[in-house]
């Protein structure tokens, strides 16, 4: 049964694509020596609902080759019994595409935020009895177990007008032309899947349950980068002033502490710090222009 759930988990796993750091080398070494048919332990931080106390439960899972975290969670859901043999409720998590495109399955795995669909168990638990820890993101309210409410993430995209404005759905003819260089830059920015990894790693972005405070708390690297994406678009530029106005206010670009954690955990390798710098420059020019406009 578990083997049938792992057919989408055979892609290459890395914290950021194409890295050659020691941690990546260790994961590759673990993958090569992983023992087929071993049983490992998933230690999962659980919560029965919003506002309720969290608790930990362990689950033993037999791991076939190339299993990812999602396939193991599916096994636990089909066999909701703890490592001590106690029957329990199935673990709840969020997921969609299972190929690192939708961004829904973000969680904290072994202390690092990442996508669970692209996290191969062989990389982190190659031996019999190894333990993997799963926790929900801490910067968003927990709905249940590993599932969090990312509403604030999408609200912040609204703050920066994260879209291209149109005046109707009828044909307007050919779109504006772009240089290959701009296309190359914008394509990478467009791969953002609103997963929340950058926000979980950011020391300036913290849990804020009061929606009335969302307009003045730090907006996050994802929204800043999307503002850059749409400001580079010839039609998107129509809202450039509004985007920069929002980013020059409370919770905007000035609240970034330049920790650079965001770019280290982005699963798409988006140059978030470059976007922050680019928007900082645009905001400065906008402030100067605004001063002379009066």
* SS strand fraction: 5-15%
Shape: elongated
Helix content estimate: 25-40%
Determine the mean pLDDT: 91
Give the SSE order as H and E letters: HEEHEEHEEEHHHHHHH
Q: Specify the number of helices.
A: 10
What would your notes on this structure say?
This protein is an alpha+beta fold. The chain is 33% helix and 12% strand. It contains ten helices and seven strands. The chain has helices spanning 22-33, 69-78, 121-124, 151-159, 180-190, 197-201, 221-231, 240-247, 261-265, 272-293, and strands spanning 39-47, 54-62, 106-109, 112-115, 131-135, 142-144, 147-148. The strands form two sheets. The protein has a five-stranded mixed sheet. Strands 6-7 form a two-stranded antiparallel sheet. A hairpin with a 6-residue loop joins strand 1 (39-47) and strand 2 (54-62). Helix 4 runs parallel beside helix 7 (221-231) and helix 7 (221-231) crosses helix 10 (272-293). The protein is elongated, with a radius of gyration of 21 Å.
Topology record:
Blueprint: H1 22-33, E1 39-47, E2 54-62, H2 69-78, E3 106-109, E4 112-115, H3 121-124, E5 131-135, E6 142-144, E7 147-148, H4 151-159, H5 180-190, H6 197-201, H7 221-231, H8 240-247, H9 261-265, H10 272-293
Parallel strand pairs: 1-5
Antiparallel strand pairs: 1-2, 3-4, 3-5, 6-7
């Amino acid at each position: 049964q578990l083997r049938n759930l792992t057919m989408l988990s055979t892609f290459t796993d890395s914290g950021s694509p194409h890295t050659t750091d020691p941690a990546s080398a260790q994961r590759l070494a673990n993958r090569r020596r992983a023992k087929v048919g071993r049983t490992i332990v998933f230690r999962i931080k659980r919560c029965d609902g919003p506002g309720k106390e969290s608790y930990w439960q362990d689950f033993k899972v037999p791991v076939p080759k190339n299993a990812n975290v999602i396939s193991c969670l599916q096994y636990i859901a089909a066999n909701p019994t703890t490592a001590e043999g106690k029957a329990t409720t199935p673990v709840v998590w969020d997921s969609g595409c299972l190929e690192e495109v939708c961004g829904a399955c973000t969680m904290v795995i072994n202390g690092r935020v990442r996508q669970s669909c692209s996290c191969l168990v062989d990389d982190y638990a190659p031996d019999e009895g190894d333990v993997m820890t799963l926790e929900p993101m801490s910067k968003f309210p927990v709905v249940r177990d590993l599932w969090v409410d990312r509403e604030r993430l999408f609200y912040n995209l609204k703050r920066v007008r994260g879209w291209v404005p149109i005046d109707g759905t009828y044909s307007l003819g050919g779109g504006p032309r772009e240089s290959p260089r701009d296309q190359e830059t914008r394509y990478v920015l467009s791969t953002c899947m609103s997963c929340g990894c950058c926000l979980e790693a950011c020391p300036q972005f913290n849990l804020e349950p009061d929606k009335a405070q969302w307009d003045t708390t730090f907006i996050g690297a994802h929204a800043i980068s999307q503002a850059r994406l749409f400001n580079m678009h010839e039609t998107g530029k129509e809202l450039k002033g509004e985007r920069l106005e929002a980013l020059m206010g409370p919770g905007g670009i000035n609240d970034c502490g330049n920790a650079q954690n965001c770019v280290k955990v982005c699963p798409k390798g988006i140059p978030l710090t470059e976007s922050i710098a680019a928007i900082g420059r645009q905001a400065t020019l906008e402030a100067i222009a605004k001063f002379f406009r009066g």
